[in-house]
Amino acid sequence: MALSREQIAQRIAQELKDGYYVNLGIGIPTLVANYIPKGIEVCFQSENGLLGMGPYPKEDEIDPDLINAGKETVTAAMGASFFSSAESFAMIRGGHIDLTVLGAFEVDQHGNIASWMIPGKLVKGMGGAMDLVASANNIIVAMAHANKEGESKLLRQCTLPLTGAHCVRKIVTDLGVLEVKDGAFHLLERAPGVSVEEIQSKTQGKLVVPANVPEIKFQ
Fold first, then answer.
1. What is the pLDDT of residues 26-58, one digit of tens each?
2. Is 197 among the catalytic positions?
């Protein structure tokens, strides 16, 4: 069975390590803040000027002035700080973010990512995505494995305008977990009940499949 948006975020949260500074992109990535593993401390950074972003607020905690980069209301963890977007991007461009989690329209087998525009559709700009993919040490993409027509979004070569080149290291989709290396997607884990054959059929790019592919386990 394909993973839900929340389950994708939950699996990505398993990649967090104690002391990490993490930037969460718009969409599925923002859900990762709800699933921090027990026993570790992680500091989430939002590019609009918040370091120490907490999980989504409960109804009685909503503050309309406290938002993330996607204009969703969030909470601030104890010790959080607020600053200008100029200082926020200085953190990003200075390489001070340990992990960036982004959504994407397409990713290809060379680690290229297209996440900011579809030709012919009105867009307001790339936002901070280009800075994030150019500066981050580790990038994980959260995305659907295929589009609504069933066409693969894990390609031999991206067809949409690139956000960044040769930067994606790992992908968590609704079907599995894949690592990008040596010009191929390497299948690490599969969603519970999803077969390797289904993943192969929905992956256009080169896919390396080991003899044993375990199912994703949630902590």
1. 889 988 988 999 999 999 998 889 999 888 888
2. no
Asked if 169 and 112 count as a contact pair (C-beta separation under 8 A), the reply is no
- Pick one of 3.90.550.10, 1.10.8.60, 3.40.1080.10, 3.40.50.720 as the CATH number of 5-208: 3.40.1080.10
pLDDT band at 135 (very low <50, low <70, confident <90, very high): confident
Residues of the chain above pLDDT 90, percent? 67
d(CA 171, CA 178): 5
Amino acid at 126: M
Of 125, 117, 141, 127, nearest to 89 (Cα)? 127
Could you tell me the CA-to-CA distances from 56 to 23, 45, 67 in Å, in that order?
A: 15, 14, 10
Contact indicator for 178, 131 with CB cutoff of 8 Å: no
Rg (CA), the chain: 17
Which amino acid would we find at residue 79?
G
Q: What is the pTM of this model?
A: 0.91
Q: Among candidates 156, 137, 133, 136, which has minimal Cα distance to 204?
A: 156
Amino acid 44 reads F
Phi–psi pair at 198, nearest 5 degrees? -65, -45
Q: Which of 6, 47, 72, 198 is catalytic?
A: 47
Rounded to whole angstroms, the Cα distance separating 120 from 126 reads 15
- Dist CA 60 CA 52 (whole Å): 20
CA distance 201 to 203: 6
